[in-house]
Amino acid sequence: MEEYEAPQPSRINYLNAEYGLKSWLLTKDHKRIALLYLGSISFFFFIGGLYAMFIRLELLTPQGDLLSSATYNKVFTQHGIIMIFFFLIPSIPATLGNFLVPMMIGAKDLAFPRINLLSWYIYLLGGIITIYALLAGGVDTGWTFYAPYSTTFSNSYVIATGLGIFISGFSSILTGLNFIVTIHTMRAPGMTWFRLPLFIWAHYATSLIMILGTPVIAITILLLTFERLAHVGIFDPAVGGDPVLFQHLFWFYSHPAVYIMVLPGMGVVSELIANFSRKNIFGYSFVAFSSLAIAVFGFLVWGHHLFVASQSVYAGMIFSFLSFAVAIPSAIKVFNWTATLYKGSISYETPMLYALGFIGLFTIGGMTGLFLAALAVDVHLSDTYFVVAHFHYIMVGGTLLAYLGGLHYWWPKISGRMYPEGWGRFSALVVFVGFNLTFLPQFVAGYMGMPRRYHAYPPEFQVFNVLSSAGASILGVGLLIPMIYLIWSMRYGKSAEANPWHLPGLEWRTASPPPTENFETTPIVTWEAYEFAPSEEMEVVGRFSKSEGAVQQL
Amino acid sequence: MAESYAIGHETSHPALQHHFENMEQQREAGTLGMWVFLVTEIMFFGAMFLAYTLYRSQYPQAFASASNHLSLALGAINTGVLILSSFTMALAVYSAQSGHRRNQVVCLVLTILLGLTFLGIKAVEYYDKYVDHLVPGRLIPGHPFDASHVHLLPGAAKQNVEMFYWIYFAMTGMHALHMIIGVSLLSVILYFAARGRYGPEYHNPVEISGLYWHFVDIIWIFLFPLLYLLGRHLAHAG
Questions:
Q1: Is residue B38 part of a domain?
Q2: How many domains does chain B have?
Q3: What residues of chain B lie within 8 A of the CB of A215, using their CB?
Q4: CB–CB contact A185 B39 (8 Å)
């Protein structure tokens, strides 16, 4: 690819266009809101991480010596609630998605900027209420809030936590709504559906789940809260209710929620794999439609969480079959990424290391999911550490790695600075090693029968838990390093050019950091996604173009 | 679609927000946004409809007994009120599109009044239930549920009657909350309509508020037969 003359960074960009707290707290710029989210989810990730540390410390020895069983119940519950509802769900969509969806489609902003800001405040309000519940005494129901324990018997702050989750759900709904409308109506001229980057397709599918699933968990948690508050009931068997109805309603959202967490990650990885192989993605439309297929199938598999909860065996068979079926679109993605690598011009920058890690770990996470989708095997594995290891491979090995990869990849665009590449690669490696050391032994322990959610365990499982705790400390260090050098790079990092990776995507055709309006003039798209055309010269749109013309083309 | 992205710019309209290319794109975004929002509302109510369906099939006698105690007359009048309000709402949208400011204001006022009438009648019904001790659980402290006013059909258990009333209050309460939001929304629209903001050029806020209003009406169209008309024939038999 021929080098083009790098445009000079503009003096006015979205970061320095305005100063002062008010300019941030009242901003309607999607890029600034993305940064507000970035700060707040990092905060919640830190809290969730502290809880994880206590879990791993307690499980270092077979006896319950550090925490009482009651405290331990609260610690793992709060770890789950914070990490799922306040980190993983908003992680990629609310930060990278918020920042990039308008930029990738050539729009000035999301369709509803005020609703976008509102979603952050709603998230914050829900978060504050939840933090209050944790400080006031915590909650011990597990993140699943199963009735009737949560409605009747638990002596912890279920109502406040439920309210926090109920409220924060609306931030997710509003983000999804904003993305769908933006992708439908705000695409730049020439940006047809099949020229959209796969990141956009993934976010579109995610948004569908957000708007269809989240309202169900909202009303379910609300009914649960009322049930506990006023002893009215449709879940409590004491008034003729059915606790299994709660499980159905809960998992109707919470299983698709897994895809809210992992689909945006798949979108990030599709970008990284294609761009760092400098090759068009293999099977674009298959990867695009597999996102939609995952969103659709994802809504039909919730019953696999109820295999041992009195569900009819025939329903179980259907849910088992559908759970196997959802593996197909996921496998399509993995195969297409692998095929993209073939004969690619691969370079191993930090984001690519994370992306390759994602493919391996997601594959392990997905394959072990098939064990759990098998009716008979699930009876043995239900509620063991095998399940814990499985979903951590998806959520940490999948989502978190994709999030970190994406954060590094777009960091030059977001901050206008380069992160230190050496440290980046080093920490990516530390994260990968630490993660596997933490969770691989849990598969074995779980398969041998170690149950989840207990603070004490038979001594024969200790070796796996010691390995796991050791891995967790390595993982913790691996996550702290990027936190430090990314903050460091905001001030001391090398200035980033508009297109440091030399890529064709629209977001790279404007300055780093971009101006508030993203593009000086509305871009006209005449190229396909991931079009690496070696002979052609690539230019940027707007004021950075060489000629005076309004719009430059590839 | 294609025209809406033309870079010719008719950006002069004062209501055009900075991030849209033209009014057409802004209108499309607003309308789609409301439709997507209504989809989330369907899912929101959907969970309660599911709970209703499940327990009605499990406890048909108890549900019919409890339903027979609801006021058919008040429910039916309220249904009529809401259908009428949907009609006036549609007229308000039409007047905005065709630029009749006075008609638009009159229709919006009528819609709001009909909405308030609905809420008033609903309040009367709630009060009746309160007097009859039919508010379930401890929703009102010191005023426990008591099914003695309800004529129980054979096979109906009192605790399931209580469950029916919880579902009744949850669903109609959530619907009433949406009505209150709708009335507030229309009041804002009325304020701007009176100042002549909406006309043939720009009337999308009126249109999408209308979508919302019709949606809330449709929820009631389902709630009325499901809650009020249950097993009425059984009442005569028993």
A1: yes
A2: 1
A3: 40-41, 43-44, 46-47
A4: no
Domains and CATH numbers, chain A: 21-544 (1.20.210.10)
Q: Is B36's CB within 8 Å of A177's CB?
A: yes
**pTM higher than 0.90:** yes
Residues of B in contact with A244 (CB under 8 A): none
Do the Cβ atoms of A215 and B166 come within 8 Å? no
pLDDT (tens digit, 9 = 90+) per residue, A259-313? 999 999 999 999 999 999 999 999 999 999 999 999 999 999 999 999 999 899 9
* Mutate which: B166, B167, B178, vs A, most A CBs within 10 A: B166
Q: How far is B100 from chain A (nearest CA, A)?
A: 29
B interface test, pick of A239, A518, A519 with most B CB neighbours within 10 Å: A239
Please identify among residues 143-182 of chain B the ones whose CB lies closer than 8 Å to any CB of chain A: 157, 159-160, 162-163, 166-167, 169-170, 174
The beta strands (E) that lie in A48-185 are given as: none
CATH number at residue B46: 1.20.120.80
Per-residue b/e over A192-210, b at no fewer than 16 CB within 10 Å?
eeebbbbbbbbbbbbbbbb
| pLDDT, tens only, A16-43 | 988 999 999 999 999 999 999 999 999 9
Cis peptide before A102 (omega within 30 of 0): no
Q: Say if the ipTM goes beyond 0.85.
A: yes
Residue B130 distance to chain A (closest CA, Å): 15
Reported as a single tens digit per residue, the pLDDT across A200-222 is 999 999 999 999 999 999 999 99
Residues of chain A found within 8 Å of residue B166, distances taken between Cβ atoms: 232-234
Q: Calculate the alpha carbon distances from A102 to A109, A205, A437, A513, B93 in Å.
A: 5, 16, 39, 14, 32
Domain that holds residue B180: 33-237
Query: What is the model's pLDDT at position A534?
Result: 52
Is residue B182 within 8 Å of B115, Cβ to Cβ? Answer: yes
Determine which helix (DSSP H) or strand (DSSP E) holds A320, and give its type and residue range: helix A313-325
| Cα distance between residue B217 and residue B84, in whole Å | 10
Residue B101 lies in a domain: yes
Q: How many CB atoms lie within 10 A of CB A127?
A: 24
